[in-house]
Amino acid sequence: MQIEGKQDTAYIADKYTANNIYRMNITSEALRAELKEFFGFTSFKQMQEDIIKHLISGRNAFVLMPTGGGKSLCYQLPALLMKGTAVVVSPLIALMKNQVDAIRGFVAEKEGIAHFLNSSLTKAQIQEVKEDLLKGTTKLLYVAPESLTKDDNVQLLRQCKISFYAIDEAHCISEWGHDFRPEYRRILPIVQEIGKAPIIALTATATPKVQADILKNLGMTDAKVFKSSFNRTNLYYEVRPKINAEKEIIKFIRQNEGKSGIIYCLSRKKVEDMAELLNVNGIKALPYHAGLDAATRAGNQDKFLMEEVDVIVATIAFGMGIDKPDVRFVIHYNIPKSLEGYYQETGRAGRDGGEGKCVAFYSFSDILKLEKFMQSKPVAEQEIGKQLLTETVAYAESNQCRRKTLLNYFGEVYSEDNCGNCDNCLHQQPEFEGKDYLVTLFQLIRSMKEHFKADHLANILGGVTNAMITSYKHNTSRFFGIDKEKDERFWLAVIRQACVEQFLKKDIEQYGLISLTDKGKEFLAKPYSIMLKEDRHFEDSGEGDDVDEDMPAGGKKGGGGGDQVLLAMLKDLRKDMGKKLNLPPYVIFTDPALEDMTIFYPITNDELTSCSGVGKGKADKYGQPFIELIKKYVEENEILRPDDFDFKIRSTEDSSNISRFIIHNTDMHVPLDEIARMKDLDMDELLTKIEAMVSAGNRIKIDYYIRQTVDEDKIDDIYNYFKEEAESDSVIEAMKALGPDYTEEEIRLIRIKFLTEIANGY
Predict the structure, then answer these.
(1) 311-320, 542-551, 561-570, 658-667 — which is least confidently predicted?
(2) How far apart are CA 115 and CA 107, in angstroms?
């Protein structure tokens, strides 16, 4: 092979020194030979070869490539071939060691060929890195952005020949990205201080807005953009209602026994609890979050990579960056705060092109919790966060192809109507003719001069009266409540599908203002038939764990996975019993309890306690008629019952200890805030645990605390609401019905009293 006039032998003799010059017009054949020698591959993926040639020629590059697409090779191979040291900026400290070890494995005779520089190193290790850098041995230096900005490191790198800068996870630069990190904004000034060299920015997730931010903030608007398709055809996407999520997760993992998986949770506490729950149920799992010390984190990650455990449970807020090709499932216990985050996290499944199942549990309580988190942030940041969250809600609740919705979010058009590998495509919902609805919507947008967001437009069409509607006098518009049978949720679904079909676009710079595209204007001028789908409808799951701990428990609605004929019969029985006992039906058994009965067909009291929210007390008090109905139904229809009543989730010892602690101290009339303090819980967390206990049939006597903290009139009002007016035990619905004078905590306390006295017979 010829390289800028040099013969092979001359080049190879100098290959691993810092003095070789390999900025050249290298042939494809020669580059593939280097790929084979260093990494053992015989061919490049997608655009890798073009990217590498572009970078070697000394020009800036922006690489947008999905997880598993081979981004790291785009800077690793050029670093080994070019003169000097490539500085790789990465936020994933825990991953740096793995990548350095991998490079050293490829070039075994030069251990110093790759190093990382971050806060985990000892003084002796830092000195070793410095020596190798100054000798010119090191070809790849991984640094955290915080380390890059330290004066000592800046001065060190100024003494080195820098081949190029690689900015990994470049979406961290943008406030519109899912993992914004302010220190990334300081990269460009530091790079300019160290010394000019080409820059390659790489990310797996970036909307058009985030792409523009990256290029601008790195001062590389002249960079060539290399953009791969976001479509990961091997990934299966599914969104499930967050009902009995822990049981569903354990069942799912048992059905995928021996396969590697990741479970994402919102809080560190839930990560710990979930990992413990999995282990007591016979599943090898370890936690991974930023609160663990570095050694524990690294050890847990290594055990997962070495397949000593099957499942790693991690926070979404802390970027894991697990580089494992055969992860077979990714489960989101909490829905993420943005689609970028969701896409990147699900992208860790099936990186080898094999099976990858991506299951997310969705509850609107999670969304409300995430909105609460935003309240302490600046207004502009809240607006951005709300928009990102709105897109996540749209994805979760949509009946459209998951793949189509995701790709549209990233600015890519997916032309297929059915991907055949998501829950919505495999279980399609009925469609309706959308032409007239789209015409009405587009006429409204045009009359509003394209100056409003989706929710406002939907509220006008759905006839919703609120402060913004009346302040603009839009309640007098001819479009206000134009179809009495269609509410704002229906119109939001129409707007979302119009965006996916490229009829409408959102102006990100203007916080999501909706406008017509050229395609939309053409449709309005000459409408044609187009089929649409209504959104899925999720109600608050009220599960009372993790993100739901700060939210009220509420009415549940099932996902329709059980025997629908039996479910109707059970609901009729519940309604009849409610009339006889003068009780609201939900007090007897909740909807999730009935739905579990249609899946497991329990015919004994013990089996009945395997159902959601059914403790021994409830089973004894109300269960017999339900058991008799189910037994008769099973016999008449010759139903083969499942063998998994041994599946009842084993609780962690800590959980049962806390329950006993709560019962003992409430019996002793210890104030609830004092009980919470003794167990290092906040009041929301304590109430959630009490709600779960009461839901399962326990009798928790808290009258003493209620009388001390809630006005007597309020007690009567709230109690009577649940007894006479409420259609479910949802605290969210109660707050809407009772008004702003009643706090969430007051309603939850009285709800506990009501359920203890009425449902559990105290």
Answers:
(1) 542-551
(2) 13
Q: Which residues contact 754 (CB under 8 A, 6 or more apart)?
A: 718, 719, 722, 723
Q: pLDDT value at position 539?
A: 56
- pLDDT value at residue 723: 83
Q: Which tens digits make up the pLDDT trace of 116-135?
A: 988 778 888 889 999 999 98
> Do residues 62 and 201 touch, judged by C-beta distance below 8 A?
yes
| 229 dihedral zone (left: phi>0; alpha: psi -120 to 50; beta) | beta
| Residue 656 predicted with pLDDT over 80 | no
Q: Which pairing describes strands 260-265 and 61-64: parallel, antiparallel, or unpaired? A: unpaired
At residue 63, the 3 state secondary structure works out as strand
Q: Determine the pLDDT at residue 13.
A: 31
What's the pLDDT at 52? 93
Question: How many angstroms separate the CA atoms of 599 and 648, rounded?
Answer: 13
Give the chain's radius of gyration (CA, Å). 29
494's CB contacts (< 8 A; 6+ apart) are: 434, 437, 438, 441, 532
Mean pLDDT rounded to a whole number for the chain: 82
Residue 122: helix, strand or coil by DSSP?
A: coil
Q: Residue 358: beta bridge partners?
A: 237, 330
At CA 343, angle to CA 337 and CA 344, rounded to 5?
A: 95
Local confidence band at 94 (pLDDT 50, 70, 90 cut-offs): low
Rounded alpha-carbon distances, angstroms, from residue 727 to 586, 590, 721, 739: 7, 11, 10, 17
Q: Per residue in 422-436, pLDDT tens? A: 999 998 888 899 999
- 458-506 pLDDT per residue, tens: 999 999 988 888 888 899 999 999 988 898 889 988 998 898 888 998 7
Q: Which residue has the tokens 């399609």?
A: 428
Does residue 401 sit in helix, strand or coil? coil
Q: Indicate the pTM of the whole model.
A: 0.59
> Which of 298, 299, 303, 271 is closest to 287 using CA atoms?
271
Strands 432-433 and 531-532: antiparallel
Say how far apart CA 478 and CA 474 lie, in whole Å.
Answer: 9
Q: What domains can be seen in the chain, in order of their start residue?
A: 8-227 (3.40.50.300), 235-425 (3.40.50.300), 430-532 (1.10.10.10), 552-647 (1.10.150.80), 653-759 (1.10.10.1390)
Calculate helix-pair angle for 744-754, 731-738, nearest 10 degrees: 120
Q: How far apart are CA 615 and CA 691, in angstroms?
A: 13
Q: Any idea how long the chain is?
A: 762
Residue 452 CA: distances (Å) to CA of 355, 449, 496: 42, 8, 14
Alpha-carbon distance of 513 to 492, in angstroms, equals 14
Q: Do the strands 140-143 and 260-265 form a parallel or antiparallel pair, or are they unpaired? A: unpaired
Nearest to 117 by CA among 135, 136, 134, 100: 100
Q: Which of 154-163, 354-363, 388-397, 722-731 has the lowest mean pLDDT?
A: 722-731
Distance from C-alpha of 296 to C-alpha of 571, rounded to nearest angstrom: 49
d(CA 512, CA 486): 23
The amino acid at residue 632 is K
